[in-house]
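Notes from the 1:1 (GR / supervisor)

We went over the backlog. Supervisor wanted to see one worked example end to end before approving the batch request, so GR pasted a single chain during the call. The sequence is below; no edits were made to it. Supervisor asked that the structure be written out right there so they could see what the output format looks like.
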Amino acid sequence: MSDLVAYDERVANLDAAAVDNTAAVVRRIDPTVSDYVALLKPRVMSLVVFTGVVGMAVAPGNLHPVLAFVALLCIAIGAGASGAINMWYDADIDAEMARTQGRPIPQGRILPGEALGFGVGLAVASVAMMGLVVNVAAAGLLALTIGFYVFVYTMWLKRRTPQNIVIGGAAGAFPPMIGWAAVTGDVSLYSILMFAIIFMWTPPHFWALALFRCGDYARVGVPMLPVVAGPRETRRQILIYSVLLVPLVVAPWGLGYAGLLYGVGTILLGAGFLGLAWRVWRDQDDTGATRGTDKPAKQLFAYSILYLFLVFALMAAERWLGLVA
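Structure output shown during the call:
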């Protein structure tokens, strides 16, 4: 508990510094198109768009190709807007972390105010377009996603609690629900299951990253679980969440939403996930310190991305192949 209090004090100091994000700017360089693309966090956006596509693919009914394109474009723009606003708010700590020092704002290629205006403009445009062209339900979910990522995760949770990833993970779990709502105008148990899968996947995915990036987070006072609770507890939580995740992923098959291909595929993929989570748990000495070079944590982090992609690919493949109704 004393460690958490100490980090709360460090976070409070960082919050005060975050009021003036211009301090993170090293120099002013004319921005390029690639700098603005980097603000959108394209790697994160690609997974968001993909899960949104799957939500649309498995939803009952059909959406005109033009409307489907607009819906996906809005999801992509909304995700990018969230990333840009996140980079504006976190410019002070991004400048201190090895993983994020090369981002446009810490490098001085884009000013914080420019990033904020860019992000807000995209956020408003994406929600408005979704509502006017597709439907209000999808637009509402998109607005909720952006608001949750910006206000709940970025501004409230990230610097205040080691549960930042657990609660904040909801922001990344909405896209398949948005895709589903774009087609149907509502949500269903299946779309909620897709949300739950991503929500439960997020903690072991990011905590694996945090294990081998712990020094970065500690240096800037972000209370990620390894920083506050230590590596042993983090490994334990990774294993617990992994054990909960795997049957949840298989659940659509058990409930009749998916077929045999999905069921067998996710069981095999889940076995791999659990095996790597177990290796992460075993890769520690009596104090909880890493025995080797964080290789198991790095392997789990990389595999978790592939795992989520393949799980959702199986959902879509069954629908496109006509294996499920």
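Supervisor's comment: The first helix runs from residue 2 to 18.
Batch request approved.
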